Amino acid sequence: MGRPPFNDQICIKKGPWTPEEDITLVSYVQEHGPGNWRCVPTNTGLMRCSKSCRLRWTNYLRPGIKRGNFTPQEEQKIIRLQTLLGNKWAAIASHLPQRTDNDIKNFWNIHLKKKLLRTNMESAGNNCRIELTDSLSSIDNIHSPLLGKDSTTTPKPTIAASNGPSSMYVLSTENISQLLKTWKRSPHDTKSSSSSNADFNDINKNTHDGNKERHIDYSHLESILPFDPNLEEDFSTRWNTAELEMEIDGVFC
DNA sequence: AATGAACACAACCGCCATTTA
DNA sequence: CTAAATGGCGGTTGTGTTCAT
């Protein structure tokens, strides 16, 4: 009974994705669209499990993803949504279409959790009525709506942009298109993996120059992705609309 | 200049709900 | 209806980079 076994175990490669793998995946999704991930390793020859392919696409390769520093507005929104929803990162991410749940989760764990704890401790130092929390996990409890905690105790966050991202291997859709150009010149380079990685490191180095802000220019990707370049603008527009603000404010107020 | 600590983030793991044969 | 695959999600980890000493 049940479904026939699907051997996903043969696709066992793990670790960081290579540019070649990314291109393969992007090309496949371009042709077939996202979804039916169980077929992806078989049809593409990628030695990755379907889960890994889906994750790579949704968290990294999908068009419309905004990378780099979170804006103060985004930060405020995340804090407020986390207060309301708890650690429902996917739900929170649905209010920030350009951000992935993984990114938001990382941002929360790295920046906001600490910031809130610090603010909380300062409050405790200034006001004896507030009990000092002694662990980072307590921050989650403080903000858990299900516990019915008084939201007025939620510390007001200070706005501070995080520092620039590291220059470790980071892939953007812009990088994919650039790599495609390089790749076309020497598609069968036997040292493709290592050399391509080097190329990508160079690309990222260049991308991270100046203010270190990672900017994704999707215009280069039009030829390989069914992506509307206006999408990012659309997200930005939607982001700024009073409608969306009211949608969220309505929940909080 | 060297080195250890802290930071940042991509990727993996495990669990659960849904889908499918 | 059953059981296994699949997809989705949240938590955690591994590792490269940056910063401080």
UniProtKB/TrEMBL annotation:
GO cellular component labels: nucleus
UniProt cross-references to Gene3D superfamilies, sorted A to Z: Homeodomain-like (1.10.10.60)
Compartments where located: Nucleus
Gene Ontology terms for molecular function: DNA binding
Stretches assigned to the HTH myb-type domain: 12-61, 62-116
Domain (Myb-like): residue spans on this chain: 13-61, 62-112
Keyword terms of this UniProt record: DNA-binding, Nucleus, Repeat, Transcription, Transcription regulation
Single Gene Ontology BP annotation: response to auxin
Matches recorded under InterPro entries: Homeodomain-like_sf, Myb_dom, Myb_TF_plants, SANT/Myb
SUPFAM superfamilies the record matches: Homeodomain-like
Chief localisation class: nucleus
Protein name, as recorded: Myb domain protein 94
